[in-house]
Amino acid sequence: MAGVAPKNGPSKTEDEIKADELHVRQIEAEKALKSANAPWWRRADPLTLAILAAAGSLVGNILSEHSKAKDDQALEQTKAQYNLVLQAMATNDAAAAKRNIHFFIDAGLLADGDCRIRNAIDSDNPVLPSLSGTAPAGPANLLSPPLVASLYNFPPGVDGRGQTIGIVEFGGGFDRKDLEQYFSRLKLPVPEIIAVPVNGGGNHPSMTDDGTDMQTAMDIEIAAGTAPRAHLKVYFAPVPKTEGFNAADFAQAVRQATADQVSVLLIGWGLTESRWKDEDIKLVDGALEQAAKQGITVIAPSGENGVTDGMTDGRRHVSYPASSPWVLSVGGTTVKIEDGKIKSEKIWRDGQSATGGGVSEKFARPDWQNGVKVPLRADGSTGRGLPDVVATADPAVGYTLFVHGNAVVVGGTGAVVPLWGGLIALLNQANGHNLGYVTPRFYREFGPAKLFREITEGDNGVSGVTGFKAGPGWTPVAGWGSPDGVKLINWLRTHPDGTSTAANVTACPATTSQ
Q: pLDDT tens for residues 230-244?
């Protein structure tokens, strides 16, 4: 027992006995913590780890204090402080942990000289449930957003805090019960969502098979599954009454998101360029330009109908708004996974469907694409090439979602939009400011620096029309390739662009307890 000398050994001093006693208490506490049911400080959150490190420093100081203890009262105070720290660290109750941490900071027991811990506790509640999501139960070849994030090496230690992801929808809606079931399966918090009506639209789940609810669920569940602490604003415009889109509604949704200063704007909708009126493209593109110039990363899909974009004239076509130079255009791949890693990745094409990609007939080639080989148009002129990047989109290796009370599997380049949106939100958070209009940097920096997984196999030919082939460098079917989140954030940290303004920085508050 602690405090009792061996029968045949020399007697211990009082200080040595007290040191032994404290050591035993420490061992017992460590055993208790190891057996606890996933206490919040053990979860993959950088702030909670920072808190733990600060507490560890405190414990170290406490252990060194035993030699200075002059009486039992001093030792008991040391024990009491140590036990208080253990209580705060072991609780799974967010409110209790918050109160405890405030107490330790205010009492000088927990170092927080830069107010980093206090700021995050007050604004973001980093002691809420685990952010390390796992795939829902299902066939092994199906994917969940957290699993896809791990496959693409999304940066660790960030979760989208301080970011607002805007989502444009046309009709449909979401059901809170669906989201609760889905994120419960992922062991992630239900995202904070605000539905924003645009020109008479609203969050109105159709409960039909028209695809609008599915699109909304896909955007929300994939974006929040990769950036679980980001705020979401869903801009619901009315369902188009005729073929195509109402350009006024489309532009207004983008303008509203711009006015709300979202960090990232997801547009999972598109239509073949040739089916848009020139004046309508001009109206919508004016809104996209304004969003980009105000520091918003706008993302749109290259389409699911291959090189023809669904047209039957035997020619190559691309989709708008993915063809806009103000947009980050994303395409799709097929991945083969072994042992939790991507073994191979090629262009997604499964017979009837394939990733979009090609050369715009509406937009000239931007100067930032001068360094890559964008094919000429049929008339020999130059145009904007797309996509810029890709990620897994094959429905056969699809994303698991939850809609209308049922688990479903989806794919397509529309699923790549929220995936890349979540990644941009994470990069924004980790980088300390928003990337904003980042597409030119993909061509001037990221691509040439080989920060992506290069896709060199496959093409997007459909319906007898020859598609574009993947290959080294940028191609009009795979862009620069699929993401490597760690490579991207490491580059951003060592190559700041010097033009973005810091965002979401909270000033050190006055010392108060809650």
A: 999 999 999 987 778
Q: How many CB atoms lie within 10 A of CB 323?
A: 32
* Helix residue spans in 127-277 (DSSP H): 145-151, 176-186, 212-226, 247-259
Residues 6+ positions from 29 with CB-CB distance below 8 Å: 82, 83, 86
- pLDDT value of residue 226: 97
Give the CATH H-level superfamily of domain 145-494.
Answer: Peptidase S8/S53 domain (3.40.50.200)
What letter does residue 444 receive in the DSSP assignment?
Answer: I
The per-residue b/e assignment along 127-143, b for 16 or more CB within 10 angstroms, e otherwise, is: bbebbbbebbeeeeebb
CA atoms within 13 A on the CB side of 233: 20
Q: Which residues of 59-79 are buried (b: 16+ CB within 10 A; e: fewer)?
A: beebeeebeebeeeeebeebb
CA nearest 97: which of 112, 84, 116? 84
Distance CA 298, CA 235 (A): 14
* Three-state SS sequence of 37-101: CCCHHHCCCHHHHHHHHHHHHHHHHHHHHHHHCCCHHHHHHHHHHHHHHHHHHHCCCHHHHHHHH
- Let me know the angle formed at the C-alpha of 457 by 147 and 139, rounded to the nearest 5 degrees: 30
> What's the pLDDT score for residue 77?
54
Instruction: Please tell me the distance from the alpha carbon of residue 221 to that of residue 203, in angstroms, as a whole number.
Output: 16
Q: How confident is the model at residue 42 (pLDDT cuts 50, 70, 90)?
A: very low
Q: Where are the alpha helices (H) located in 91-133, listed in sequence order?
A: 94-106, 116-124
d(CA 367, CA 39): 52
Nearest to 359 by CA among 325, 322, 320, 318: 318
Please identify which residue in the block is written with the tokens 């050994």.
9
Please spell the DSSP secondary structure of 341-380, one letter per residue: EEEEEEE-B-SS-B---EE-SSSPPPGGGTTS-PPPPTTS
Distance CA 489, CA 438 (A): 13
Distance CA 82, CA 66 (A): 12
The three-class DSSP label of residue 463 is: coil
- Can you read off the two tokens belonging to residue 94? 């967010």
User: Across the strands, what pairs with 304?
Assistant: none
pTM of the model: 0.73
| Cα–Cα distance, 190 to 195 (Å, whole number) | 15
Question: Cα–Cα distance between 460 and 349 in angstroms, integer?
Answer: 6
Instruction: Decide if 170 contacts 246 (C-beta within 8 A).
Output: no
User: Which pLDDT score is estimated for 496?
Assistant: 82
- pLDDT bin (cut points 50, 70, 90) of residue 512 is very low
CA atoms within 13 A on the CB side of 113: 0
Helices (H) and strands (E) in the chain, counts: 13, 16
Per-domain residue ranges of the chain: 14-124, 145-494
- Among residues 88, 100, 75, the alpha carbon closest in space to that of 33 is found at 88
